[in-house]
Amino acid sequence: MKTYIITGANSGLGLETAEKIVKSGNHVILACRNLEKGQEALEKIRQDSSNGEVTLKQLDLASFKSIHAFVEDLDSLTFHGLDNNAGLSAQHSGLSADGYDIVFQSNYLGHFLLTLLLLP
């Protein structure tokens, strides 16, 4: 069984990707900002497939603190793939807690930091 991390896995392409991977007998970590929506996605995947495993972890790509906590929580877990899927539309505006444009941080800086921290 292989393990994959998918950001923004609570809807859209992220959810579809997670469902396919779990149905193929693998483990998916749903990395979601909103735990309530993430829990709904987790339950949907579990209902639709019993072949693989699915877990939920909170990850807010607009927060460097959240990204560091997410990686620390993985505790050296071996994983086989990362799908940087999460993103905000240009409709969102304002600054993140880290002082960057929230769309730029969520769609670029956050994924860059996550990927960098997960590299061996």
Automatic annotation (TrEMBL):
Keywords: Oxidoreductase. InterPro entries: NAD(P)-bd_dom_sf (IPR036291), SDR_fam (IPR002347). SUPFAM superfamilies: NAD(P)-binding Rossmann-fold domains. It holds the Pfam family adh_short. It comes from the Bacteria. GO terms for molecular function: oxidoreductase activity. This is Oxidoreductase, short chain dehydrogenase/reductase family protein. It comes from Streptococcus urinalis 2285-97. The lineage of its organism: Bacteria, Bacillati, Bacillota, Bacilli, Lactobacillales.
